[in-house]
Design brief:
Layout (H helix, E strand, L loop, with lengths): L6 E6 L5 H16 L4 E4 L18 E5 L3 H7 L6 E6 L13 E4 L1 H14 L5 E4 L8 H16 L5 E3 L9 H14 L4 E5 L2 H14 L7 E6 L3 H5 L6 E4 L2 H16 L8 E4 L3 E3 L12 H13 L6 H8 L3 H12 L3 H19 L4 H7 L5 H12 L3 H10 L7
Parallel strand pairs: 1-2, 1-3, 3-4, 4-5, 5-11, 6-7, 6-8, 8-9, 9-10
Antiparallel strand pairs: 10-12
Length: 398
């Protein structure tokens, strides 16, 4: 029986980051679909350590080059290297002599802004990260946003805030609140990551800014963990990170068999958007409807009823129902149910909880009732929805 010698491959990624995890998953998918035999080196606790990596006696490396320290360390490495990272508008910014698989930053931002345009918004802003070498990908997304706004002769509003740490937490949140209050409304905000979008959603809640009536927010990464931490389900652009991983693995496989691919550049477009409540802006004129939807969005999963919403707004139940019919063409109960459904979808997509736990956590009176709602509204059972979400490579909402 013939056996193929396994190649020793290092994966230099910080797998605590959603993007890096998805790239690694794509590498795994490539290996599972081919006869390539690789022994993989990946830090056990998923943190990225570079000390001595240039002396590593292996056959190849796939690495996240968004970190300039990684690019610097591997410049002295003799093993074949494939780089993964964000795209650059300036070709000179790409590392020389290394094949590079890039997420298309321009298309990421364009897809996010097009979605905000589609929901009826006319003003746009971006929540970015402080300028730093390790945040070059964020600055590239800023440049893409500026370019799109200039093309439409619109003013571009960008806020970077400060890095999140314990010592500056209060200052960071207050800065976000002050910025949010200064913006003209309604407005759509693109956050450079889901983590940044989550912070902004939290600041909106503290400041009493209605999402998405006054501020519609969309992130980038489609990170299931972030969705679990947001009271309002977060819309997010789905990067083609798994496809990037597959592509990078294929390039390295070719290099291991003697193919020369230096300076190859491959840009992978985003694969779609998962649309949830944070960006589902609907122009609402009546202040009672706006206030009611803000309350529902925060507490739908706690099993609130129509009369509780009316009490919060300070009007009679019949009056609130009339306002909802006039503004939205549906009942207060319909809106509560819609938010429960969105929350259940987000929870099922994470795959972390049982269907019974999701039903309970999202305010459904029973698993059977959630089953009926899914069948009626989505044409499938909760189990089928979860299986499709966890196994599908295509976005649920594109």
């Amino acid at each position: 029986m013939n056996t193929t010698k396994a190649h020793r491959i290092a994966l230099l990624f910080n797998a605590n980051k959603s993007f890096d995890r998805e790239v690694i998953a794509g590498i795994g998918a490539y290996l599972g679909s081919t006869r390539s035999a690789w022994d993989l080196f990946l830090e056990e606790d998923f943190r990225l350590r570079l000390s001595g990596i240039e002396h590593w006696q292996g056959d190849g490396i796939i690495a996240d080059f968004d970190d300039p320290a990684v690019a610097e360390a591997l410049s002295r490495c003799k093993a074949p290297v494939v780089a993964v990272g964000g795209s650059y508008a300036d070709e000179a910014q790409y590392p020389q002599g290394v094949p590079y698989v890039a997420t298309d930053n321009y298309k990421l931002i364009k897809l996010a802004r097009d979605h905000l345009i589609d929901v009826g918004l006319h003003r746009f802003a971006m929540f970015s990260l402080p300028q730093a070498q390790e945040n070059r990908w964020a600055q590239e997304r800023e440049n893409a946003f500026l370019s799109l706004m200039q093309e439409d002769q619109m003013e571009a509003e960008i806020f970077r805030g400060c890095e999140t740490c314990a010592s500056s937490w209060d200052e960071s949140v207050q800065g976000q609140i002050d910025w949010l209050r200064s913006l003209p409304k309604p407005i759509g905000i693109i956050a450079v990551t889901d983590a940044r979008a989550r912070q902004l959603l939290q600041a909106c809640t503290i400041a009493g800014v209605e999402v998405p009536e006054q501020v519609a927010i969309i992130g980038i990464d489609n990170d299931p963990m972030v969705r679990l931490l947001t009271r309002i389900p977060l819309s997010s652009v789905i990067q083609g990170a798994q496809e990037m991983g597959r592509t990078a693995a294929h390039l390295l496989d070719q290099m291991l068999h003697g193919v020369r691919l230096s300076n190859t550049r491959i840009q992978v477009p985003p694969s779609g958007i998962n649309v949830f409540a944070s960006s589902q802006h609907q122009p609402v004129r009546h202040p009672h409807v706006m206030r009611a939807r803000h309350f529902i969005r925060q507490y739908a999963c706690q099993g609130i009823k129509t009369h509780q919403v009316a009490e919060y707004v300070g009007v009679s139940r019949s009056s609130l129902e009339a306002y909802f019919r006039q503004e939205l063409g549906c009942s207060v109960h319909d809106v509560i149910l819609r938010f429960k459904l969105d929350a259940a979808r987000a929870a099922l997509e994470s795959g972390e909880r049982s269907i019974a736990d999701v039903a309970l956590g999202c305010g459904f009176t029973s698993t059977q009732y959630m089953h009926l709602v899914f069948k009626r509204e989505l044409g499938c059972t909760p189990r089928a929805y979860r299986d499709r979400a966890l196994g599908a490579e295509q976005p649920l909402c594109a």
